[in-house]
Amino acid sequence: MRELKIDAVGGQGDGVAAGPAFVPLTLPGERITARMEGQRGELVDVLEASPDRVAPPCRHFGHCGGCALQHWDIAPYLDWKREQVRLQLRRERIEVEILPTFASPPASRRRVALHARGGKGGVRLGFKERRSWNLVKIEECPVAHPKIVAALPGLARLAQPFLEHPKSAPTLHVTLTGTGLDIDVTGVERKSGGLSADARVQAAMTAGEFDFARVTLAGETLYMARQPLVKLGPAIVPLPAGSFLQAVPAAEQAMADFALAHLAGAGRVADLFSGVGTFSFRLAQNSAVYAADFSEPAIAALKAAVGSAPGLKAIVAEARDLTRRPVLSTELDKMDAVVFDPPRAGALEQTVEIAKSKVSRVVGISCNPTTFARDAGLLIDAGFKLEKVLPVDQFLWSPHIELVGVFSR
Length: 409
Ligand SMILES: C[S@@+](CC[C@H](N)C(=O)[O-])C[C@H]1O[C@@H](n2cnc3c(N)ncnc32)[C@H](O)[C@@H]1O
Fold this sequence. Notes:
This protein is an alpha/beta fold. It has three domains: about 50 residues, CATH 2.40.50.140; about 190 residues, Rossmann fold; about 120 residues, CATH 2.40.50.1070. It has ten helices and 23 strands. The longest helix has 18 residues. The site of S-adenosylmethionine has 18 residues, from loops.
């Protein structure tokens, strides 16, 4: 057992003391005791608590790996997220105005991935434990939308047939859409014939009983009462199974508002890594849009939704791998602006082309400040100024941070 003084909260959300020693569930300024294993510790006791320590709103907090920072008052927690963005940008020697973090409200997350395990007491449905593969059975979740929380008993029933093979470890990817819950199940053992006919029927019956919109098995439709639809700006989009969707509608809107404010008056905009058109449809209210993403189902859904919003400017969408076949600088020269929103790995190859082009306005949206800082560095070297950054707290009480940065030259 060691007594430690916590100096800061590190990038993974753990308290950090001299050494370094990392102790989860602690806060800057606290004196604590911890049981240490190497550099990692488990909190035993808080001897002197921070004035910013608050009672966590969820009874699962501390065990559940979904949240790391519920014990921190919201203002210092949001400042810490902003500071994480500043630190990552500083590593690339980028100094920029960073706005206060946009805060997603509790109970607003429309997407969760729930793991299911069998056992003597029946199906357990929940999230992974902190630093373990064990499962915490979830009965409440202050982050998820109440309609998802209310559906937990039905989702546990739905998981049952997917556990028929002892090697299956199903994950239910649950999305709350405008027409009800859309559930894509992965982690089901495919050998020995895959899911049996009986299990498929049982899953479909349960889906009907609980009025789920659709159930798919790694993208294959097992049951569909209604096409899952999402409203993205002015458009209504048929969501492909297992498709990417921003986790919190309010955060999505904040990102879109910030991006669009920078692009006023742009005649043509390229929306790269467009997904199903989260930003494309909003952009197309004022600008002609070229959208590209390597997911063919996402591009098909985007195209199918164009007619749902009258009065939009032209939208052209293309399934394209932007790592292997980035949109070339010569193609981008015909655009007035570019929006890019890549996965965690960033958009190195595509950014090189943006940098070489004549485009003068760019918006970068990212779920990884480290790769964003790298890509931003390339644009700055090519004469862009990173004007402002908006940190977005889309994954409340987790260490994840998203951001939008606007560039001009
Ligand atoms: C963070 S999501 C953003 C999607 C969309 N902008 C939105 O907000 O809903 C990243 C997108 O990048 C796409 N993607 C991943 N790797 C890609 C690649 N190599 N080329 C093109 N698109 C890719 C994914 O299909 C996904 O739609």
